[in-house]
Amino acid sequence: MGDIDKIKERKMNRVFIAHAWSSDEEYNQKQLQFIRLLQLELEERGLEVKYDDAVSNKDSLNSFMIENIRECNVILAICDEPYFQKSEKKDSGVSFEIKEIREHNLLKKVIPLKISSSQLPYNFQTIQYEAFQEEFEKMDLSISRSMKSLMVRVAELLDNTELLPVDSIKS
After folding, report:
1. What's the pLDDT score for residue 142?
2. What is the secondary structure of the chain as a DSSP string?
């Protein structure tokens, strides 16, 4: 496989994780721990994962969001109360992300992951979500039905059957 093919393959397997920061630092740490678990699961399957863990200034954050929303193949939106609340505020990063997604007709790339009982943002309400409340509470994705369901959807979006979960053989 040549260098150009490798670049194309890697670009075809990019996942962007969209989320919102809360004013509660303890909750942010828990959410970040969940995102890192999710990142590890996805990277273990050969996917490149991007999220805004290290972007600090708003101008670079907006550029980061624009680039990753447009260039990635899958957008996983971590939907919780802060994400919903910020989706309703016109000047928030979440509102900016959703506007980018909507304006560039990218809703087909979005998979909402509900980690709480809060509502989905208005623009995501017609998209099937994956329920990850239990996984978020237990911080465990290892035997998750939701993770299997998510991987089926990611495999379909990427047209990559190698990502499909394999059921273990029962004795």
Report:
1. 80
2. --HHHHHHHHHTTEEEEE----S-HHHHHHHHHHHHHHHHHHHHTT-EEE--SS--SHHHHHHHHHHHHHH-SEEEEEESHHHHHHHTSTTSHHHHHHHHHHHTT-GGGEEEEE-SSSPPPGGGTTSPPEE-HHHHHHT--TT-HHHHHHHHHHHHHHT-GGGS--PPPP-
